[in-house]
Automatic annotation (TrEMBL):
<dbReference type="InterPro" id="IPR052058">
    <property type="entry name" value="Alcohol_O-acetyltransferase"/>
</dbReference>
<protein>
    <recommendedName>
        <fullName>Alcohol acetyltransferase</fullName>
    </recommendedName>
</protein>
<dbReference type="GO" id="GO:0008080">
    <property type="term" value="F:N-acetyltransferase activity"/>
</dbReference>
<dbReference type="InterPro" id="IPR023213">
    <property type="entry name" value="CAT-like_dom_sf"/>
</dbReference>
<dbReference type="Pfam" id="PF07247">
    <property type="entry name" value="AATase"/>
</dbReference>
<dbReference type="InterPro" id="IPR010828">
    <property type="entry name" value="Atf2/Sli1-like"/>
</dbReference>
Amino acid sequence: MDTQVVPAGVIARYFAARNTRGIYRSFAGSGVYTLPLNPEASQFTELLQYALAKTIARHPALCFGLVDKSGASEAHFVRLHQIEWDDVVELQTSSGPVEKQDEVLERHMEIAHNHIWQDQTIKPGWKIIVIRHANPEENFKSRVDLIWPCHHALADGGSGAAFHKTFHQHLSEGLKSPSNTSRWPHPIPPTTPLPITIEEACPLPPNASLAVSKPEFHPPWLAKPPSLSPYATRVLLLTIPNPQVATALKKCRSLHITMTSLLHSLILLYLSRTLPPSDANAFRSCTPYSMRRFSGISDDELVNHISFITSYWDPAAITALRSVAGMEGKREEDDALRRVGTQLQSEIKDELSRVPEAGCGILLALAPIKDLDAYLKEKLRVRGDSYEVSNIGLVTIRGNPTDEGDGVKVEKLAFSQCAMVAGAVIGCSVASLAGGPMMVSLTWQEGIVGEDVVRGLREWIGRRFEGFRG
């Protein structure tokens, strides 16, 4: 076997097949940076080349492509010999007003999430889109957005934070020492190892029982059936300022729930009062969680070490949520928030307690699949979930300036996902930056649910965070 080829495990085979079919295409970690100056185009490119080369050298996952099964060839990773600059970097400029800059970021995120990874024997399963926003004041700090879409087989949402930690470090180095240089095409050492997979780090025990679906006595709201065409990811971003996040955390502590539970509660409150009872009497949600506590892999590494739980919100729970409409901030609504949080946290606690002996949910779900083609064909018949909340939590970037200093600063960090053809109708992906805001990314497939519904959800979450009193 070619030493550049590494067989794909069960999870990588699954994501490779979903990418090829366009069912799930990418997640992305996006950072909003400010530079203390406005470099010339050539100087800016050299700065990016240095930072990206150093980032690739730090993270082995960036050195691989993933080829799907074809004929007699099974899915496999390919260690690239080199990475071409033009294959992984897209430079964009924007001259719009400051108040529209997040909308520009949203549009570029949408385009990035529509991409299907191809030519994986010569290109890696990731790229960066860099957007320079024009600033009318010369010699004044400038805003640069960096989107890092990635094949989910190579990395998970938390890896997006790890990517930006490393990129920020080397972008800062390059700015301080302009003499730093890089070599492009970027050579890949032939000894570069594939990062440890979750199957290797947390193998299923010999006596692991297969995943069993929980009973659902009333069909959940799933909007329209899955459709591969037309496909267009839509993205809406919500920036929640740090003081509002702090107040919301006080609210969570008073209710004995987590931030993830609070977001579930707010989404369920909104959907239960926005959608008619005749269409939405129950909901099914997905909550991914990190397996790194079990695999022992640092948060600073690029790996795909996640699993998930599925929750069912029955008609009794939804009726209770509808009954507290208009009671914002009152005891009755607090009780409803607490009930949702208690159910979710109990399910997560039970799941985590079983992992050491029974194995993680994603492996239990995928390991028994003998015919991946038939499995995915069946998945396209009925949508999986009403919505998903994926919260990568608080991200601390070492050396990130806390004031108006002269360093490179990450102002905001976003985590987003492509539209999930057979998965959640609405994806809610969340990242919080230490000392900065929390970013909520809402994504959906155009035409599957009304844009007015998702825009209303963004406004609802934003208004509720503004109104929390702890």
